[in-house]
């Protein structure tokens, strides 16, 4: 475990001699996740299987670039990251291979995994609508389409359109409404903006609390995290002002995304990599993996952490998440075509 931690501290670009560590009994995990509970997740796997995890942490796009540049000699076995749009990019870069596993197929819902098993989702983050309870009647705000309703002029805040979460949301709009419908939606949301996009998801929540925005869009885990622990700008009073709605419950379901992983095409420890992926889908690992980032488990029937349970359950969009990647370039073009910054 100490060895694993060492690699955990290595930065991308600091080329440690992990390439020499190809012996059986280990896997090399390239991860853009780093939560405290992940330590338990990994040490439990090591205890159970005797397979040592060497971790290399970095930003997703940098890890993908690194695996590409390492080429056939890459020590990488598993790439673990967030957002199906990024996993799609990794697959497009040709660095992933199919993981054949009936267990994974049975455990991970069909829409949360690549159709050919190039990647699997292990936790869910849902992109939902938050609102100022003093200014918005939740009955008026039940769908993503409502964000574009002129009655919310000057009230809506989002982060910038180039962000992967916004691209994935738009990609799902394109899948459901077609390019024209998605463009009209973007136009409406843009003209309803309370301000030009700025900051991350937590900043949209802060802006609701401060009164700058009446409505915001954020992934569920940012709000659940602020329920669980102190987040600056989101104290108890601020949080009590913010309501939330899982959109499209009567139609397509709420836009879901994942943290997920795929096996690297040149994986030197493929069998161990499959064991690791299967472990991530186990009940025990699902609890740690999802709770570590206040996310929903990917596997049905696994219990929710306390903060996530407060957000409640929802009906999910079952659009296969590979559509988020396939429509990613068009998503940016659609935002750009209406001047959505
Ligand atoms: Fe995030």
What would you say this structure looks like, in words?
The chain is of the alpha/beta class and 341 residues long. The chain has 2 domains: 2-124 and 258-306, D-Maltodextrin-Binding Protein, domain 2 (3-Layer(aba) Sandwich); 126-254 and 322-337, D-Maltodextrin-Binding Protein, domain 2 (3-Layer(aba) Sandwich), CATH 3.40.190. 41% of the residues lie in helices and 16% in strands. It contains 14 helices and 10 strands. Strands 1, 2, 3, 4, 5, 6, 7, 8, 9 and 10 form a 10-stranded mixed beta sheet that branches. Helix 2 links the parallel strand 1 (26-31) and strand 2 (52-57). It is globular, with a radius of gyration of 20 Å. 48% of the residues are buried. Mean pLDDT is 92; it is low at 1-23.
